[in-house]
Design goal:
Elements lengths: L1 E5 L6 H12 L8 H11 L4 E6 L1 H8 L1 H17 L4 E6 L1
Parallel strand pairs: 1-2, 2-3
Helix pairs in contact: 2-4
Length: 91
């Protein structure tokens, strides 16, 4: 999975999860932090490349929940390794 998300277009946390669902092709993705971790660790085959441009805009819109999203992604990176999952944040 190679997915670029423009943080300036994310209306809320549900919108972020909708982009993950669409980008992963996993229609049954639950759209929660637990589901995000499971998707990245056990469902989508590597390599997984997530690039979030305008991350500061996403943070401004979603607030502290954006920090939790990033933490969950980094937890998945720690679980699977940097060869399997890469996260690039760009302000």
């Amino acid at each position: 999975m190679d997915l670029t998300i423009d943080g300036a277009t994310i209306p809320d946390e549900a919108g972020f999860h909708a982009l993950i669902r669409e980008g992963s092709g996993v229609d049954w993705y639950g759209g929660s932090l637990d589901a995000l971790f499971d998707l990245l660790v056990a469902v989508v085959a590597p390599p997984i490349r997530l690039h979030i441009v305008n991350a500061a805009a996403a943070r401004a819109t979603i607030g502290a929940r954006f920090d939790r999203i990033v933490t969950v992604i980094m937890d998945a990176v720690a679980e699977r390794g940097t060869a399997a999952i890469a996260l690039h944040l760009e302000s």
